[in-house]
Amino acid sequence: MTPGEMRRLYLIIRVFLTYGLDELIPKIKLTLPLRLGRYLFFWIPFRHKDKQLGSRLRLALEELGPVWIKFGQMLSTRRDLFPPDVADQLALLQDHVAPFDGALARKHIELALGGPIETWFDDFDQNALASASIAQVHTAVLKENGKKVVLKVIRPDIMPIIKADTRLMSRLAGWVSKLLPDGRRLRPREVVREYEKTLLDELNLLREAANSIQLRRNFENSPILYVPEVYSDYCRERLLVMERIYGIPISDVAALEKQGTNMKVLAERGVQVFFTQVFRDSFFHADMHPGNIFVSYETPEDPCYIAIDCGIVGSLNKDDKRYLAENFIAFFNRDYRKVAELHVDSGWVPRDTNVEEFEFAIRTVCEPIFEKPLAEISFGNVLLNLFNTARRFNMQVQPQLVLLQKTLLYVEGLGRQLYPQLDLWTTAKPFLESWIRDQVGLPAMVRAFKERAPFWIEKLPELPELVYDSLKQHQLMQHNIEKLTNQLQTQNERQGQSRYLFGVGATLLISGTVLMLGKVEIYPVWLIAAGLVSWIIGWRRTGQTE
After folding, report:
1. Is 105 annotated among the ligand-binding residues?
2. Short-list 193, 212, 201, CA closest to 237
3. Backbone angles phi, psi at 351, to 5 degrees
4. Is 534 annotated as a binding residue?
5. Residue 301, Cβ neighbours under 10 Å: how many?
6. Is residue 147 a known part of a binding site?
7. Could you give the residue numbers annotated as active site?
8. pLDDT reported for residue 546
């Protein structure tokens, strides 16, 4: 461990002990040295005894800085790792990070563009409009069309911090996997690697630009979601230029109510946006925390969402979408047998799973939540119980569903905040049933025909030749099969004759040998000779069958 890592580790230990997080260390023999080691740091007192564990963990991560804040945000989506009270606190982590110097931001923007900002922009504001753990945002006016834009620039010092902290996290994860009783199942090293990949993806703003363009195209002219325009000619790996939007943060419920927003419609449209992205487009915004979602000032009685920060998106393949939709509908219909069978059919649980036991376990978790308003349903508890059930039946958490679970939790939080009486099941069920019908009914057949039509039209002139070749191949195959059958029949006949001659030859040899031992002078020689001749003929016939 390098001196820099040792200094950083000491800082982490000091922060963790200040917030009393040493109580997370399991009380087993293997961790006794660590628990005794607490007394080596007796000068670091526990200063937050009045707060719950989840709150102390959140505050500690916020104090450790942007990399750890992001790590806590990611951990909040893994509700199989923590009890609900801790996961709920982690979900509250926001990017309340102090901005870096605006002059430095200007310098890095000009380096990315290759010239002075005034060449392309007017009214550049060196005071940051917003600041997060990875980047910060400045406002300007685009010269070519006079439109107000925002310039998002990556923090200049973030890469060394990410590398240092993730390297240290990986070391700590190795200790956790050995010290915790359930450490291997939790796969802490894999969690850290997943987090590092997510961070590195967010550092490439060209990726975010492409995601935003795709999402905007998917919801073009939509009354329920607006995605700002990206000016891709000015985007670079460390710079993003996009339309400036004006809206009310989704978390500001008081402002939404003050302008007369229809909260019921807004909550229902949040559910509609989620399911449309997942099932219609298979391309969904996977970082829908309140800091990234706004509501337009226009038409409050017919509210429209505005989404920004598309650095993290998720997608599902066709099979996953189909299984998920059928699972949701089976849940809504309380058909737990169907849910259990779908899990087995999809390979999410082992093939030898006892379906009856799995069905009963799912029923035990899910039955209590139905016919309740959203305010009375804790999806965090439901997901936690489902994960515990999944572990009992050796179900691995599906990597392609982790982002989906995270997004669903964000949707729950938005719905609970905006309109607690929202019935998520009633809102989502018609959408999913319509999607299923669209996938398996006549529209699906017509759509498949349209998609394949160019290929079929291209092959149509070749059809007679293909049919002729197919018939000719069939005729040739039949001839080869008949020839092979005849060869096998002949081979079997020759092998039968060979076995007969070998048997005769063996009998004659044995008889001649016995007579010779009995001192009969003439006949034994002839019998042995005849036996040898029979063997030679049988051997030759065997050679002919090869």
Report:
1. no
2. 201
3. -65, -30
4. no
5. 9
6. no
7. 287
8. 46
